[in-house]
Automatic annotation (TrEMBL):
<dbReference type="InterPro" id="IPR037523">
    <property type="entry name" value="VOC_core"/>
</dbReference>
<dbReference type="InterPro" id="IPR004360">
    <property type="entry name" value="Glyas_Fos-R_dOase_dom"/>
</dbReference>
<dbReference type="InterPro" id="IPR029068">
    <property type="entry name" value="Glyas_Bleomycin-R_OHBP_Dase"/>
</dbReference>
<feature type="domain" description="VOC">
    <location>
        <begin position="8"/>
        <end position="139"/>
    </location>
</feature>
<protein>
    <submittedName>
        <fullName>Glyoxalase_2 domain-containing protein</fullName>
    </submittedName>
</protein>
<dbReference type="Pfam" id="PF00903">
    <property type="entry name" value="Glyoxalase"/>
</dbReference>
């Protein structure tokens, strides 16, 4: 059986009932740039790019499916951080970890900080407007 050669990450797709709100979040928090996206008839899309790093495709959620946004939906009355290290997440590394963390707090974004037991990696978790969570890591 052949293994894919030269495989690399092409993009990540996120589904949301409010792709504009989500696009603004990614642009403001991470510096994503909006790029041209196809005009699908069935649903709206916004494509974002973090140059030389990651493409993110935001796709309008199908309202007929009635599926929840996620385990920590934006309408949830409480966010339980007890399972953060285990759940599905997107992880970013940033070179300005401490100042970036301060900017999240200044924007009113609640963060949950944890360090690995070896003390060599700082971790911060936070949620996007749809309640999906992110992890930032900083290797000390």
């Amino acid at each position: 059986m052949a293994v894919a050669k030269g495989a690399c990450l092409n993009h990540i797709t996120r589904e949301s009932s409010d792709i504009r709100r989500l696009a603004n979040f990614y642009k403001e928090i991470f510096g994503f740039e909006e790029i041209e996206s196809p005009n699908f008839v069935e649903f709206k899309t916004i494509w974002l790019n973090l140059p030389q790093t990651l493409a993110l495709h935001l796709v309008e959620r199908n309202p007929i499916t009635k599926l929840p946004e996620g385990p920590y939906s934006a309408t949830s009355p409480t966010i339980d951080p007890s399972n953060l290290p285990r759940g599905h997440h997107i992880c970013f590394s940033v070179s300005n970890f401490d100042s970036f963390l301060e900017s999240l707090k200044a924007k009113g974004i609640e963060t949950f900080q944890r360090s690995l037991p070896n003390g060599k990696v700082k971790q911060v978790f936070f949620f996007d407007p749809d309640g999906k969570f992110f992890k930032l890591v900083c290797v000390i």
